[in-house]
Design brief:
110 residues, mainly alpha, 87% helix
Length: 110
């Protein structure tokens, strides 16, 4: 009996080379997909950051406006207090006292 010798090594080598190519192609596609996913997620996060920075800037602007209004109210209160103190501490004018006897009595009582 004679056996037929078939050399399967070139066939195995071709399959191994094909599997190796397939692996690297899939690895490249996976790396590309992962890169695109990272870029996409980064873009979304960047959008959120920009929107939040715009909100923060708006709040800072409104806080500045409120600070100005608070300062204005404080200065108005000081003016009102000063006017009240001046009204209390200034004596009545003598002409008013002469014209109205009741004012004269109030002024003399104090």
């Amino acid at each position: 009996m004679s056996t037929i010798a078939i050399n399967l090594l070139p066939h195995r080598a071709l399959k191994r080379a094909q599997r190796r190519r397939d692996f690297f192609v899939l690895a490249g596609l996976t790396a590309g997909a992962a890169f695109l996913l990272v870029v996409l997620i980064g873009g979304v996060i960047q959008g959120y950051v920009v929107a939040q920075q715009a909100k923060n800037e708006y709040i800072k602007q409104k806080n500045t406006e409120l600070d100005k209004q608070i300062a204005e109210v404080a200065s108005l209160r000081q003016e009102i207090d000063a006017i009240d103190l001046n009204a209390i501490h200034t004596p009545l004018r003598p002409s008013i006292l002469g014209d109205f006897p009741i004012f004269r009595r109030i002024h003399q009582a104090s």
